[in-house]
Write a structure and sequence with these properties.
Distance between the termini: 52 Å
Radius of gyration: 34 Å
Structural class: alpha+beta
Number of helices: 24
Shape: flat
Helix content: 40-55%
Number of strands: 14
């Protein structure tokens, strides 16, 4: 049976009135527990969580707001299940935040894991993050017009294997399933094969001081074992459908190939290849290693508090450039789309700039590549003066912004002809040979000599990139772009304070759950830095508990008064009391 207590209702008595001293209460109402109880707790997805239980029949569930809030705090503070349960049972600041009466509620690890499974199955972490972030943006009156975008690498709770160990562990996991579910088939396998993988994972292929030839031979043997097992159990429906067999097939396809009926090792595996059979969703980043990636968009406008307003979980192999579109779509859906977005070079392709413009967002990002291209004609004479000249680009030509027509070269000479191909979006400029031969800037100019002609071709994309390269050298651009560096501090804080760098879980679903709730937890901790918001929080708490505090103080005053009364009535008082009876 569903059981929930709306945290917005006013309590007649404050159950924490006599638990905390005045100083402790003051610190409590100035920290995250007060914000959580006043703002975050009511945003927990209780209705979706309650769909897993009957509305009236059966034993009452745990109080749903408090359990959902505990799952939120578990990721915020990087607690294990045992630590989260202990906090629920013993920590009064957590009980205050979760709107629980001290010492009344019970919870065990298994129950917490069951509610966590509901969160994962219904993808409630992303919904919670958006709800909490949107409420904080409204309460803080946050400026969302300027944001910065960056990614950070995340390691899941899995071991990092080399190629030999990866294939060997995959074989061992599959053989364990065969031994458990098909003992006759396991007994029919060659004894040498069974013995080779009978040791523990830690001791698998752990012989010391192997020569390169021995390591190559071992890898080849393991690859052939994988192929043999795949062929042997391909027609066994009971085993071929298991995840361990599918991991075996995937690992072989990623790292091996069959050439002339012989197993050959691929020179290099793809970045999206299997990294560990325990975490099939993890991929590889060439710079940062195995795991996942979190894309985050943070505000960077005026104000002492900045929040993460967008988050996107990806595998490590996905390129940053492909994250801009889904991030902008997410921000638009949440009505948090900025006017300008600061991003690093990986996001700054011409396609992304035009994509952002279509959504009325200015993408401010450096352009990859050199400032200018070297001349292809190596026969043209050079001099010390020419070498001292800064290379020119198409952006140095006089171009009509309305029509795109080239009116003059950097030396002020009028082109002989300008041809525009609308289909390929390519423009070709031809200059008078006399003008180019006599031009003092020719060695730095992108014009090329082709036979008797002097011409240059460029696309619209090249022109836009050259304009951006020239703009990024200006001081106003550098001053504007300087705020993007603050994202590195946010990434560091997420990993240092919230344990974002190394998670306790594996698999895309569990990783996304942890990342989204930790982003929401980061916003919770950041919000405590706002004095204006804390004033609003105190007003909300006073409104919900003022009556309870009044009665608590009144009864406390009467207890103090009663304590000063004599325990044994005097004789006149006794006579007076007796006469009343």
């Amino acid at each position: 049976m569903r059981y929930s207590v709306d945290p917005r209702q006013i309590s007649l008595f404050d159950s924490f009135a006599d638990v905390f001293s005045p100083l402790a209460r003051k610190r409590l109402e100035a920290g995250w527990p007060a914000i959580f109880r006043a703002v975050v707790l009511e945003l927990m997805p209780v209705q979706a969580l309650g769909q897993h239980y009957h509305p009236t029949l059966g034993q009452p569930t745990k109080e749903l707001y408090s359990v959902a809030g505990l799952l939120f705090l578990q990721e915020t503070f990087d607690w294990t299940n045992a630590q989260a349960v202990d906090a629920y049972l013993f920590r009064t600041d957590v009980q205050f935040a979760l709107n629980l009466e001290p010492g009344r509620d019970q919870l065990c690890d298994r129950t917490l894991e069951r509610y966590r499974k509901h969160f994962l199955d219904d993808d409630l972490a992303a919904q919670t993050m958006h709800e909490v972030t949107g409420r904080f943006v409204d309460l803080l009156e946050l400026d969302i017009t300027r944001q910065r975008l960056d990614s950070t690498h995340v390691f899941s709770n899995m071991a990092c294997f080399g190629r030999t160990r990866l294939l060997g562990v995959t074989v061992k996991r599959f053989l364990t399933q065969v031994k458990r579910h098909a003992p006759a088939a396991y007994a029919a396998l060659p004894e040498e094969l069974r013995t080779r993988y009978a040791v523990s994972v830690g001791k698998l292929f752990s012989q010391k001081k192997k020569s390169p030839e021995q390591r190559t031979k071992t890898l080849q043997q393991v690859a052939e074992d994988v192929r043999d097992l795949i062929d042997l159990f391909a027609d066994d429906a009971s085993m071929a459908g298991r995840s361990s067999y599918q991991a075996l097939v995937r690992a072989f396809a990623d790292h091996c190939e069959i050439v002339a009926d012989t197993v050959k090792l691929r020179p290099k595996a793809k970045v999206d290849s299997l990294q560990n059979p325990s975490d099939p969703d993890a991929t590889y980043d060439g710079h940062k290693g195995q795991g996942y990636k979190l894309q985050i968009s943070e505000t960077c406008g005026e104000g002492d508090v900045q929040l993460i307003v967008g988050a996107l979980t990806q595998t490590a192999a996905e390129h940053d450039a492909n994250a801009l579109k889904p991030m902008l779509e997410q921000l638009k859906e949440q009505e948090l789309l900025p006017e300008s977005m600061l991003a690093d070079t990986a996001f700054g392709s011409d396609e992304n700039v035009r994509l952002a413009e279509a959504m009325d967002v200015e993408l401010v990002s450096p352009v990859a590549g050199p400032k200018g291209e070297e001349k292809a004609d190596e026969t043209s004479p050079t001099s010390d003066v020419a070498q001292a000249l800064e290379p020119l680009s198409i952006d140095d030509f006089a171009i009509d912004e309305r029509t795109g027509k080239v009116n003059a070269c950097p030396a002020g000479k009028i082109p002989l002809q300008v041809l525009c191909d609308a289909q390929s979006q390519t423009t070709t400029i031809e200059m008078h040979p006399e003008d180019c031969k006599a031009c003092p800037f020719f060695d730095a100019c992108p014009m090329q000599k082709k036979g008797t002609k002097f011409e240059m071709s460029y696309t619209d994309k090249q022109r836009r990139l050259e304009e951006r390269r020239r703009e990024q050298q200006t001081k106003p651009f550098q001053e504007r772009y300087a705020k993007r560096s603050g994202m590195e501090s946010t990434n560091s804080g997420l990993k240092r304070r919230l344990g974002l760098g190394e998670l306790r879980v594996r698999g895309m679903k569990a990783v996304a759950h942890a990342l989204y709730l930790r982003v929401a937890g980061w916003n919770l901790l950041q919000a405590t830095r706002s004095a204006g918001l804390m004033a609003k929080i105190r007003a909300i708490l006073a409104q919900r508990g003022l009556l309870g505090r009044f009665f608590a103080r009144w009864f406390g005053w009467n207890r103090k008064s009663v304590a000063h009364w004599p325990t044994t009535p005097t004789r006149p008082q006794a006579l007076k009391l007796g006469s009343r009876c």
